[in-house]
Amino acid sequence: MSWQSEVDELERQTALAKEMGGPDGVAFQHGRGKLTVRERVDLLADAGSFQEIGALAGTATWEGDEVSGLKPSNTVIGMCRVDGRKVAFSGGDFTIRGGAADAAIGNKGQFAEQTALRTRIPYVRLLDATGGSVKTFEKMGRTYLPGNSGTNVSAELLQYVPVVSTVLGSVAGLPAVQACLCHFSVMVKVTSQVFVAGPKVVEQATGRTITKEELGDEKVQLKNGVIMNLANSEAGAIEQAQRFLSYLPSNVWEAPPVTDPDDAPDRREESLLSAVPRDRRKIYDPKKVLNAVLDKDSFFELMPLYGRARVTGLARVNGVPVGVMANNPKFNGGSMDIAAGEKTIRLIELCDTFHLPLVYFADEPGFSVGPAQEQAGIVRAGARVVTTLARSRTPYICFVMRQLYGVAGGLHQRGGDGLYRRYAWPSTHGGSMHIEGGTAIAYKRDIENAEDPDAKRAEIEAMLQSISSPFRNAHAFGIEDIIDPRDTRPLLVDFVEDAWKVVQTQVGPGSGPSYRP
Q1: Minimal CB count within 10 Å: which of 90, 110, 219, 316?
Q2: What is the torsional sign of CA 317, 319, 322, 327?
Q3: Torsion angle of alpha carbons 395, 87, 59, 144, nearest 10°?
Q4: CA angle in degrees (0–180, nearest 5) for 460-461-466
Q5: Cα 357–361–364 angle (5° rounding)?
């Protein structure tokens, strides 16, 4: 006796599940400029690597002993390979009840997370779901007290494997929270939105009529840091997810993946010699410095529209993945405001969790000042950055390009026993506060008693500027090494070689700060 008839039935029901919400539902999805969940999986997965889990989960229509129809669950889960590495994923099927919870079968999303956790592989969410619905009450025949919806598993997952959330449509409720329960998030321009509750709920709660775009499109959620990156298409969003994962190990028990370098380790860019203007009031583009020092075309920026006074991202140095940050004098003079501090914390925690050496190109004028920052809590935010860096144990190197002032400037240096190295460019200067601002305080009486207060202040400032040379610091061993800026890449490569040895002793759950979304 053969089981061929059952195998044929399995194939028939699987084909029914792959029809998703049917031709009309698929056409509606495409008509809104969006892909179906299965088309998204095809973009994510290496060819032929998709292994679906729970394909037959759904609501079946029986005629006697035979299934005449099958409405599948509106969540597709499974495993696949991304650039050859196994990854777990879940995807919301908007063609079935808009991905609402009342059309779910079991808890496939949580099962996918548990699969990633137990298998120790990265996890990718393909989010396109509206979350809860009051129709669930009708289906259950009662209301209920909400639980944690598996968020304990989501939180645990962050400590052990890379997690990526791609927002590929309108997401609300739990899916919106899941958009943030990750190490990297990306949304699609125009066709995706994120919000706690949709326009109709907002109207009932506040009386205000608002569109879903006004409520949570990229203009809102990129600038406030809820979502990290933006893509112009779904294919672009999934490509960014793949690129982010390429810098990270599959889990915390592994070292980051090293690639064969295609850039000379001893490359010395002539442009670095004049990268920082001699006039301290002039700005420059820090990304030009990054491109001149890091492996060519390897820098992947994170959160480019949030906390713009600091540039953060991932890159490679002689093939080794690293975290990178730099002050950006184009925004707020490069000073650390609350958003830039939060952005810095996220990068440090990512590097600690997944054993990436951290590279800092410093030009820090200090914490951002003024009534608005004080009212928003800059002191507390600054303290969080201080404690996060103090607890970090990832190898850390700093190239001081221009200025370091105050407590924020002191963050270029880390104490403790972790691997740390520092080099200063000849353009370096610093102190507890800026000479221009500090002179009026420290020499207040001298200036007020002078016949010409303005001239006296200028005289004192000139005297202090004359002793601000980095060479005076070097004579006192306050700076270990002043370097030719063109030597930055060779010295960074040398540091990363040493750091790589340390990284391999740090694999496993870290002793530094736990990752927080």
Answers
A1: 219
A2: positive
A3: -10
A4: 100
A5: 125
CB atoms near residue 5 (< 10 Å)? 8
Degrees, nearest 5: CA angle 14-15-18? 90
Residues 366/406, Cβ–Cβ less than 8 Å: yes
Sheet containing 75-82, strands listed edge to edge, beginning at the edge strand earlier in sequence: 51-53, 75-82, 85-92, 123-127, 163-167, 184-188, 229-231
Whether 440 has a pLDDT exceeding 60, the answer reads no
Q: What are phi and psi of 129, to 5 degrees?
A: -155, 150
DSSP-derived letter for residue 255 is P
pLDDT at 133 over 90: no
The two structure tokens encoding residue 350: 């990512």
Q: Which residue has the tokens 């029901």?
A: 13
Phi, psi torsion values for 475, nearest 5 degrees: -60, -35
pLDDT value at 124 more than 80 = yes
Inter-residue contact 234 to 188 (CB < 8 Å):
yes
Q: What is the pTM of this model?
A: 0.91
Strands (DSSP E) found in 155-273: 163-167, 170-172, 184-188, 193-195, 229-231
pLDDT tens per residue, range 19-65? 998 999 999 999 999 999 999 999 999 999 999 999 999 888 988 88
- Copy the structure tokens of residue 475: 């004579």
Q: Which domains does the chain have, with CATH numbers?
A: 4-246 (3.90.226.10), 270-428+479-503 (3.90.226.10)
pLDDT in tens, 181-201: 999 999 999 999 999 888 888
State phi, psi for 172 to the nearest 5 degrees: -140, 165
pLDDT of 245-286, one tens digit each? Answer: 999 999 999 999 999 999 999 999 999 999 999 988 899 999
CA distances from 453 to 117, 434, 462, 466 (A): 67, 19, 14, 20
Task: Pick the closest to residue 367 from 326, 392, 336 (CA basis).
Answer: 336
Task: Please check whether residue 357 is in contact with residue 322, taking contact to mean a CB–CB distance below 8 angstroms.
Answer: yes
Distances (CA, A) of 274 to 279, 403, 426, 484: 11, 16, 11, 11
pLDDT of residue 491: 98
Q: List CB contacts of 52: < 8 A, sequence separation 6 or more.
A: 76, 77, 78
Q: Say if residue 91's pLDDT is above 60.
A: yes
Q: 3-class SS at 492?
A: helix
Q: What is the mean pLDDT of residues 317-342?
A: 95
Query: With pLDDT > 70 as the criterion, what percentage of the chain qualifies?
Result: 89
381-398 per-position pLDDT tens digit: 889 998 999 899 999 999
Q: Please provide residue 377's backbone torsions phi and psi, each rounded to the nearest 5 degrees.
A: 95, 40
